[in-house]
Amino acid sequence: MYIGSAESHNLLTQCEAVRNVTSCCGHDLDSNDYHLFIDNFPSDVYDEFQNVSELPYTVGYHETRTLFFDVFVFIYRYPESITSPKARRFFILFLEFIKSIDVIVSIDVNSLFDCIEKCISYEPNKVLFIDENGVYNVFNYFHNQISNLSQKFENFCVQVFESDYVKRYHLYLVKLSENVNRIINVYSCINEEEVGLQLFSFLRMVHHLDLFDEIEFDVSRFYDCMNSTFMLMINKTDDNMLSPRVSKILSTILNRSRNTILIDELDKLILFASIFAFDLSRKLRRAVDSSEKFKMTTNKRQKISIIYLTLIVFPTIDHSQTRVLRRLLIELHHSVEKYIELPSTFNRCFNCKLLFAQIYIKSEVNLGILTNRTNHDKLYDFLKSFPHSLTLSTID
Description:
Layout: H1 2-6, H2 11-24, H3 31-39, H4 43-54, H5 61-75, H6 85-97, H7 109-119, H8 123-131, H9 134-141, H10 143-146, H11 150-160, H12 173-189, H13 193-208, H14 219-234, H15 243-254, H16 266-290, H17 298-313, H18 323-339, H19 350-366, H20 373-384
C-alpha cells in the first residue's frame, strides 16, 4: 500500500502515505521495512522538503516542516541509517531546515536529540554538523523546548564537541571561525547559560584539537562576554555547566600567540583572579571531600600566580568594586586551609607547598581574615613539612 501511494502523481497522497508510516509504524518496522520505506521514498515529497528548506516561509510550510521532522526522527531510529547515503540526504536537509525559525514547533525534542546523537556517532556526519553550526541552530530553532531540558542539552553539547571522535583536518577552519564569532555575538546579546555552554564546549574542542592558532575570533568581544559568564557561574549554588570550561579556556587563551588576551588592566586582573579563585576552590573542595587528587599543572600554577598577584595589589583596589572578588578569595583561603590539613599534602613537592603557603598567608594578611590558635598550629605543622635544606634540584 505504501509503495502504491508513494508512486502516486498526487503530492497530498504521497504525503499521506509517508505520514501513515511514520505515525503508525514507528516502533514496529524491522530492517527490511525500513529499507522499503527509504528506498521508495516519494521523490515529490523529498522535492517539497527541499523547496521548503530553501524558501522556508512558503504557503503550507509549517505542515511540511512537521512532516519532515517526523520523517527525520523515524529514519534515524534505525541503526542502518547512520552510514546510509540515502539517509544522509535527510540529515543534510535537516541542517538546512534548522537555519530558519518556526515559531510553531510541534515535535518531541527528546526524541530529536536521541536521533541526532545516533546520527553524529558517524564521524562524517559529526564533522558536517559542527561545520554547519548544528548545535547553535538546534538551540535557536527549538529554543522554547530546550529551556526545559538543560541537562539533556548539556549532554548533547558534550557529545557533539567530544574531540576524541573528530579528526582536526576534517573540519573546515573558515566555517569554525564564522561559527564561533556568531555564537559570541549572540552570547553578548542574550545572557543565557545554554549559549555560554555552546561557546565554551566549542572552544574546548578547539583547544583539544590544537586549533586555537588556526581559527580567528573576536577576542575583545569574547572578553566582554566574560563578566556575564562569571555572574552566571557565581550566582548558582550548585555545580554548574560553565565553571570548569570557562577557567580552562581562559587559561588556554592567556598562553596563545593568536586570539590571546593580555592582563594589562586592573579590571582584567580582577576578573581573571575571580574566575580562577572560583575554579580552584571548587577543585580543592573536591579533593578534600572525595580524596580526589589535586594535580598541580602548569596552568594551575599560572592561575595561582595570578591570584597571588591580585592579593598583593588588593589593599590598593577600591573595595566597593571588589566585593565579589573578596568573597571568592576568602572562600579560596578556607579551601586551601582545609586542603593543607590533609596528610597527603605534606608529601607534595616543595614548589607546590610553597604556592599554597603563599596564597594562604597573603590572603590572611591582605584580606584581614581573623584566625585562631588552632589554625595557626595547623599552618605551622604544614610549614614544618618543608625541607630544612634545599638544592636547586629540589625546587621544580
